[in-house]
């Protein structure tokens, strides 16, 4: 049977300004399919290739697939739904399937607004997909769908969700087919090198209320560091990858495994051939002060820090364990270790003012990060926080949930003014860097990297793709009152989805009354990286490299 995977053609002017990122999901699913004997697998990266609907429909028609599958994060959900609508238009016999974090939690919403989708894969896709494909291949579809774990689908007018499938226990059995990607297309602009996004672990041992990672992956599983380096070495040798970013939300959670990973890279001489970056927390950098030189020796050159907010007022609102001085110290330690540091600021909360935005700029100048990024606060619709915000979330057009569009309207300013003041921060910060910093950072790697970052910003600025400025008609301070974010206000939450949330909220309330749930004090908001938990070295020993569980049966399985 012929299987076609499609990465939806979604663009927002966010992370993509630094380059084209390889869709790792396609490699992982293709690897699982080929490992099971399904070799007729095709892939279309409609995002990187800017494939419009007409061309995509023509390519689907030419390939004549039996199954078309795609994925979606929240902002790309409508594009993903359209991919599958086009597949059904080509042939109603094509089985259309959707996966990813948004569909996993919002399957009632998705199936209500896109009934042409035959099946949603909920959670990790590799093992569920094989069960699904085998049923189709053996002629057991659609009758067998009720017996396959981890699915959601329409049965007449009813939305059905089968029992959650167990998570993949042995991550090393998953062999991604990196060859399905055309690697010459995936280039990291600051260095002009091919880029990859491998991962060390799935899940997180912590359960922050604002986060979806632990909900999606459920149990925390970390790979053998040597196996991760094996994969990176393959990417370098076979696909000429010269830069990678670990996909983990926080790869430094397990310090022992992270150190072992760094030591393995050094032992194989890979830092001379490939450099890399990570996202992590301020608290982890402070904890690992004595190891930062080792991390740099292993090729770590870029750390993105979730400082989230500059003003202490906003840190308190996020309930961050970090303080302003801790943020400043972490940035200084990274710079002293010759690691470029990017400070992440979350803006656009309800209490945002011109003064708080100016404070983020002043703190960025005081902290002296190499790079700074101001992201609009975006509450994921499947997080507990989204429900708690209630009517404050007036926009349900998920296409705009992209970190560059103000979803929440601050009480003290209009959205256009918010965007303008954020752009003013960018202009001032990078103008100073361009004139007084980047050109004078020596003649080596740091200078090359920073000038490459500046090139990426300038390119996106001239093309008006940065922050989606061209689409929203922003041309500078004079246009802030004319900005049009093009919200589709006809988009609403499906009754089936909201009813599900209300039931979940009631269960949480009753559990809290029984003392089974500990809530954040005063219901305060947290941002990514905002938990105060640390995984001790002793606790890390409990997370051995993922392998087959002692009992392959139901014991140890986690279900939603």
From TrEMBL:
Keywords: Iron, Iron-sulfur, Metal-binding, S-adenosyl-L-methionine. One of its GO terms (molecular function) is catalytic activity. Residues 190-411 form the Radical SAM core domain. Residues 536-560 are annotated as: Disordered. InterPro entries: BchE-like (IPR051198), Cobalamin-bd (IPR006158), Elp3/MiaA/NifB-like_rSAM (IPR006638), Methyltransferase_Class_B (IPR034466), rSAM (IPR007197), rSAM_horseshoe (IPR023404), rSAM_sf (IPR058240). Residues 9-143 form the B12-binding domain. GO terms for cellular component: cytosol. Pfam families: B12-binding, Radical_SAM. The keyword Iron applies. Its cofactor is [4Fe-4S] cluster. NCBIfam families: BchE (TIGR02026). This is Magnesium-protoporphyrin IX monomethyl ester anaerobic oxidative cyclase. It comes from Novosphingobium aerophilum. The gene is bchE.
